[in-house]
Amino acid sequence: MRVAEKVSALDLDEYQQAARQVLRHPLITASYPDRATLPLVRKWASQLRVDLAETLGYTLVTGGDTVRLRRVQDTLDATRPAYTRARKPFDRRRYAYLVLALSVLGRAGTQIALSELADAVAAEAGRVDGLGMDTERKADRDAFVDAVAWLETRGALRMADGSAVDWVNDPEHAEALYDIDREITGAVYAPSRVLQHLNSVTDLLGDAASAGPEQGINAERRRTGRRARRLALEQPVVYYADVDEGLRGQLRAPALAEDLERLTGLPLERRAEGVALINTGGRLTDVTFPGTGTVAQAALLLCARIAGYLASSRHRVELLPAATAAERLADASARIDAALPARSGVTALLADAGHAAATDSATATDSAGRPSAAAPPGDALPSGDAMPSGDVAAEATKAAGREATYPFLSDSWLRAELTKLVKEFGRGMSERQIADPASLLDDVLHLLASVGFVARTDGGVLILPLLARYRGVTAQLKETIK
Question: Domain segments of the chain: what residues?
Fold first, then answer.
């Protein structure tokens, strides 16, 4: 079956815009992400429902004023956190308060006072070892209101009176009153698994439909094809060395590129090392690269320095293997599972809460942040960018059956180069960020790892082929006219 089979050539661009909005925003409401998106997506909902199911194994659920995309997660992805009012990724405390707030709202009436919601969440949080919530502490009130603001942005809560900010600053004399939208809270709180039955965070992964009655070679090929499309769509880059032979074959198939390009309107670029969906104009991402701001600028300049260093025949660098996707998943799941409470404790907590929560995203932030099995859906897909010609990582092993190795650069070398960049271009960067070079380097490497340019390892990073795309970058500071 062809993607967008019943869409005319004249309407294809609008259909693809609707598809990108659904993929970028798993929850769409009358006000989120804006007032124009819900009517657009509802117009194409029937065709999208078919195409998303066939190509990706996703389920599109439409309600009166909501559209909810239930994704299939194949790995633990820390690149789509929820964000605070200050645009900082949620930490584990904020995720916990968000889930508990949703549980409380599920039992509330049509309206709720902020202090009432806070007291109920605090009572639930007090029963969770290591969590707690003290409304006398401003830090806890701030974290709680960040969770409330996340719900308010999506329309699950609507301010009827008062001010949440005033309550945070002076809870004794300020208050806020919210209307509750039950359809939206129900759409957010959409379990894909029964949490009482989970033994590991990896139980949240994979396509539940894949365990259905459809068997045989053709059925397995369809499932593998959907997984390959999901990888190419959801990851900024997919390296062949990172996946098994079955997925490599699907990633190389012409049908995969045709399906994704027709669904999203974005071209799929192929190189010897892998594939990447080219996210032109940032139409399917919340992380664009290159981007604005000190971290993004420093990251781009560091890419150029790395590329130049590796391209020089004067420098010999150590080549090391990178962990495969399967190895990264095993490591992450082991760390998360080690922090899970006892099974009896989970069952009792969920039974008392009266609601089991899980979303289509299997990770949170630090929780991812970084990891939590009950993280809410993120706002966007990671950025996708084109594959390089491979000059920087020319020595990386590409032959099937051989372990791929990549250039290793130490943290000390990276710190030294970033220090040089700050000295040369610091006038165009944030003074606060360049005053803490260690933190700036960590932010830069986190950004580069999230878009598939480097793989962080003990003592440094491995340079992946995608970084070579920016080997010719030059920079010049603008002169200020006085």
Answer: 12-70, 107-188, 197-282, 294-325+383-470
Alpha helices by DSSP H, listed for 360-436, are 411-425, 431-434
Q: How many helices (H) and strands (E) does the chain have?
A: 17, 13
First to last CA, the chain: 63
CA-closest candidate to residue 276, choices 358, 383, 126: 383
Residue 322 · residue 406 · CB < 8 Å: yes
Peptide bond into 407 cis (omega under 30): no
Q: What is the mean pLDDT of each run of 10 residues along the chain (482 residues)?
A: 91 97 95 95 97 95 93 85 92 95 93 97 93 95 97 96 96 96 89 78 75 70 93 93 92 94 94 88 76 89 92 82 88 86 49 39 31 35 39 42 84 94 84 87 94 93 92 65 50
Q: Which residues contact 142 (CB under 8 A, 6 or more apart)?
A: 168
How many Cβ atoms are within 10 Å of 263's Cβ, its own excluded?
22
For residue 434, the one-letter residue type is I
Structure-token match 């007291």, residue found: 119
The gap from C-alpha 176 to its chain's centroid, in whole angstroms, comes to 31
Pairing of strands 59-62, 27-29: unpaired
Could you tell me the pTM of the whole model?
0.82
Side-chain half-sphere exposure of 238, counting CA atoms within 13 A: 25
